[in-house]
Amino acid sequence: MTSQRLWHFFGGLRLAGHKAMSMKEPVKAAPIPKQLVIPVQQHIGSAAEPIVKPGERVLKGQMLARATEYVSAPIHASTSGKVVAIEERPVPHPSGLPGLCIVLESDGEDRWKELQPHPDYTELDPSALRNVIRDAGIVGLGGAGFPSFIKLNPGPDNSVDTLILNGAECEPYITCDAMLMQEHPRRIIDGLLIMKHALRAKQCIIAIEDNKKVAHTLLVNALHEHEAEFIKIVQIPTIYPTGGEKQLIKVLTGKEIPSHHLPINLGIICHNVATAVAVADAVELGKPLISRIVTFTGELLSKPCNLEVLIGTPFSDLFDFCHYQPKESERILMGGPMMGFIIPDNHIPVIKTTNCILVQDKQKTSRPPAMPCIRCGRCADVCPARLLPQQLYWYAHAKDFDKVQDYHLFDCIECGCCAHVCPSNIPLVQYYRFAKTEIWAQEREKKKADLARRRHEFKLFRLERKKQEDEARKRRKKALLQKAKDTGGTEKDSKKAEIEAALARVKAKREQQSRQRKNVENLTPQQQQTIEAVEERRRRLRNIGTTESTDKDSD
Ligand code: SF4
Ligand code: SF4
User: Fold this and answer.
1) Which ligand is nearest to the CA of 418?
2) How far is the CA of 11 from the centre of ligand 2 (A)?
């Protein structure tokens, strides 16, 4: 262990861990389900766009949907089989709304597409590395789901001093990262080295909470093999939510990330340990992100565990595999007890950000009815983002979405500390999620309205331009008629005269230009001859063009 000075972040809670129950056995591979339901939106940013059609056969690892914009991530087939539908299905999201999914029927062969590994990542420059990571569909596996290649691109004006690998896993019950650190410590360091290469970072820190002693020891041993002096493994106090990006940076560096700023503004980048393994697999083995470790836990389960699950596996298949039958008296959460949400349907699929499935007793865990806010201020005392949760609640409740943003709603990390201590049992985080969703919806509507307005304005501009061109044409025709009348000729004669005059103007201009030619001094006789031959050809072509135009015009 490397000793390092540590700082405290504001607020937070000391919570019971409930972690040991799911760490008794090694990670087991969940079976390939008969049918996989793969949502096209499993990340922050724009949904991916399907590039396969129902009826199409696909191989494991084949891209099913491509990224549509910069902030987006492609989706891949988790096994080989046949696409049987592309339709809306229930998906894991706090809103409970369905989402577009690619439904894949497995053929049982689990046949990979041809992979393109890069065993020596140092042969790739940072930009090529980022492309590999982008095409592998890797997103932050700590829960946020932000496309990782973007966070591996500091931009031309930033340099990265410290790359932090987040192994804190601070939320109770969740142990998928702890198990990963115990079982694949070397792979984590492999991924960290690739990320360091992509970022050209000066130093790296792997941060682990001090309640994960085994994982810490195994990582320290793995690091000794690499002899990488620029990597430190640091144990940090177990305080929730120390795994939040800003909180972790504060603990490790003492630096506060101001509102509306990113860690890169201070030369810091944070990634999750599981993301590092996904990066190592993508670069060194050529494998896209098609599976992850999921903690399946809760006191009501006979055998809480960690499972390696293919993305798109329905929760219900995992329940069958673990011999668990959901009951009316229970509720199932995706995520932990602080930041998780109740799932709308037992058939929703595991996605890239599914770190935990938690089964709880409804009676023991349901909150008493909410009471009015008594302005006790306890919520503000524990808020790690130094917000005023009661004010946020007040304005979110009143649907005053301007005011709620003045109180920095978007700095809220939805950690749930405020709701946890509220004596009035107000479901504060639900109000913040509601306000965020509404604001995003309003912004989307505004963008749509702006686009429609710009299209309408362009249409009006086009119509006006056409009107002016028509009028100009009419005026020209009228003038020609008048000229023909004045000279006693026909309209055709006047038109011909106009064209001839225009051609004469062009010819005069060309001759002037050729007189002004440069770089023609001190030519050899041979060069002079070549130029004359070219000029002669040009003259001939011009004469032919003139004759043809005049002929056409007189037809
Ligand atoms: S903790 Fe609850 S009751 Fe107290 S101020 Fe905050 S919201 Fe109001
Ligand atoms: S949920 Fe938001 S407001 Fe509440 S304590 Fe966490 S960061 Fe603060």
Assistant:
1) 2
2) 10
Q: Is 382 found in the same domain as 281?
A: no
Gap from CA of 367 to ligand 1 centroid (Å): 15
- The rounded distance, in Å, linking the Cα atoms of 470 and 460 is 15
Question: At a CB cut-off of 8 Å and minimum separation 6, what does 318 contact?
Answer: 30, 294, 296, 307, 309, 350, 357
For atom 6 of ligand 2, the residue with the nearest CA is 415
Ligand nearest to the CA of 423: 1
**What spacing in Å lies between the alpha carbon of 382 and ligand 1's midpoint?**
11
In terms of Cβ atoms closer than 10 Å to its own Cβ (0-12, 13-18, 19+), residue 326 is middle
Do 264 and 126 fall within a single domain? Answer: yes
Q: Are residues 157 and 281 in the same domain?
A: yes
Lining ligand 2 with CB less than 6 A are 382-385, 387, 389, 392, 412-418, 428-429, 432
pLDDT in tens, 392-420: 999 999 999 999 999 999 999 999 999 99
Yes or no: say if 174 and 336 are a contact pair by the CB < 8 Å rule. Answer: yes
Provide the domain limits for residue 442: 370-517
Residue 311 lies in a domain: no
152/272 same-domain check: yes
> What pLDDT score was predicted for residue 493?
77
Chain centroid to CA 228 = 31
Count how many domains the chain has: 2
Same domain, 282 and 405: no
- What value does the mean pLDDT take over residues 539-553? 56
Alpha helices in 269-323 (DSSP H): 273-280, 315-321
Task: Tell me the DSSP string of 473-485.
Answer: HHHHHHHHHHHHH
Q: Closest ligand 2 atom to the C-alpha of 428?
A: 4
Q: How far is the CA of 435 from the centre of ligand 1 (A)?
A: 18
Q: Are residues 143 and 240 in the same domain?
A: yes
Q: What is the pTM of this model?
A: 0.82
The residues lining ligand 1, judged by C-beta closer than 6 Å to any ligand atom, are 373-379, 389-390, 393, 422-424, 426
Q: Look up the CATH number of the domain holding residue 203.
A: 3.40.50.11540
Ligand 1 atom nearest 380 alpha carbon: 6
Of all ligands present, the nearest one to the C-alpha of 389 is 2
